[in-house]
Amino acid sequence: MKLRSALSALVLVAAPAAVVLGGATGASAAPDAVAVTKISHATATSMFSQSGITWSSSGGCSDRNTPTCTSFTQLNLATAQGAQTLKSATGCALNITGGTETGHASGTYSHWNGYKLDYAKSTCVTNYVKNTFTYIGLRGDGAPQYRSGSGNIYADEGNHWDVLYYNCGGC
């Protein structure tokens, strides 16, 4: 029993930014017990800048608690890497319009919990998603959805893409 407690304590000390979440199982669901590493707003913006990804907000701010801002506070590392993968794979201009700020739908795999980003619509990104990924039907709100080869979900919400990153998309 002492060895188990020591190992548990070691895991907590060695990986303070990792969180383990359980999810639903099945072919179309997120994987069970996925370790998640959270990053800061500054780390995310640095990663995006290095990849040529831009971001904007209707409020011109980055406060996580203001819905008109675009924040990356508590973004999952895999989500940021997924954006970099998308940029690299498409060669398209990529502008993030929504991150971890309040005001989005709730849930385990939500913006607030670091799993989602919104991208401004562009012909380049739209053509890439529709020609490369698999159409999987309409979401509950009527948004057409496409699944990438790595399992991430791209939902066409009309004026932007809402992307759910279960992983980095092959980074």
> Strand portion, in percent?
15-25%
Report how far apart the termini are: 39 Å
Principal-axes geometry comes out as globular
Order of helices and strands: HEEHEEHEEHEEEE
| Largest sheet features | 7 strands, mixed
Task: Provide the spatial order of strands within the biggest beta sheet.
Answer: 3-5-6-10-9-8-7
Q: Enumerate how many helices there are, as a single number.
A: 4
Secondary-structure-based class equals alpha+beta
Number of strands: 10
**Range of helix content:** 25-40%
Residue-averaged pLDDT, rounded? 86
Q: Which spans of ≥5 residues are poorly predicted at pLDDT below 50?
A: 1-29
Q: Evaluate the radius of gyration.
A: 17 Å
General description of the model:
With about 170 residues, the protein is of the alpha+beta class. About 30% of the residues lie in helices and about 25% in strands. The chain is built from 4 helices and 10 strands, in the order αββαββαββαββββ. The strands form 2 sheets. The protein has a 7-stranded mixed sheet with strand order 3-5-6-10-9-8-7, covered by helices on one side. The chain has a 3-stranded antiparallel sheet with strand order 1-2-4. A hairpin with a 3-residue loop joins β9 and β10 (about 160-165). α2 (about 40-50) runs parallel beside α3 (about 75-90). The protein is globular, with a radius of gyration of 17 Å. Mean pLDDT is about 85; it is low at about 1-30.
